[in-house]
What we know:
By secondary structure, the protein is of the alpha/beta class. The chain has helices at residues 33-45, 78-85, 118-128, 133-147, 162-175, 192-207, 219-225, 243-263, 271-274; strands at residues 12-24, 51-63, 67-71, 93-98, 102-105, 180-184, 211-215, 228-233, 236-241. The chain is built from nine helices and nine strands. The longest helix is centred in the C-terminal third of the chain and has 21 residues, at 243-263.
Amino acid sequence: MPTAxxxxxxxxxxxxxxLGVQYSLKFTRKTxxxxxxxxxxxxxxxxxDSKFWALHEVSFEVVHGESLAVIxxxxxxxxxxxxxxxxxxxPSAGVVEVDGHISSLLTLGxxxxxxxxxxxxxxxxxxxxxxxxxxxxxxLPGMVEYADLGEFIYQPIKTYSSGMKARLGFAIATSxxxxxxxxxxxxxxxxxxxxxxxxxxxxxxVQAAKAIVLVTHDMTWVEEYCNKAMLLEHGRxxxxxxxxxxxxxxxxxxxxxxxxxxxxxxxxxxxxxxSTPAGAAR
Length: 282
């Protein structure tokens, strides 16, 4: 992934310009080479192709001390965006400039060895993150205390629930005091007490001039704890700015989609509509 130190403004943690991520849809599990070539010839003749843009012409900035919420319907490209920022996916177009150390928690259990216990997985994750052994051992008690897994910290990860994995992963991701923290829907996992503790930790990072980018479906979290929001739909930015305003647009669009789906018979008829007296006009 092309990365560089932002030269125009030292306060900018992330600068994204014209970002695009394109996938080829030509090959599937059941697609043979002959069928693929035949389909490609037909696509050329018809002036079409089998490319899909998961993200297209996406541009934005995140400055140090900002908490950006990325919201939108499923399939909008939110997780793809975070994977680009984390360096997991190489963009097909555009420029991504990152200033600072990134820590990410994008998928629960990603990078965990299912047969190792919690403590050994902390050590493993620390090695992957480039933390030297002495520093990791010094921080280990704090991570264990923050995760608050009790005796389960000595049990294999394969015995953990999704909430327990979230606790451990979040403790690891935030303990390294990153300049930029990427979170993908992990704050919705776990009990209420841990979610509040997680939110408090994110706010500490923001107040320490750290940059946060998170994907979430929790609109309350967006409005109360983020100072910026961005709405993605079909891989494009539809709205960006004040969290409350962006959330309102997202909710309006979501209501419109549900109404269209209900009219098409994709969703159940709303209860209020179902109670319409017999014989009434539909």
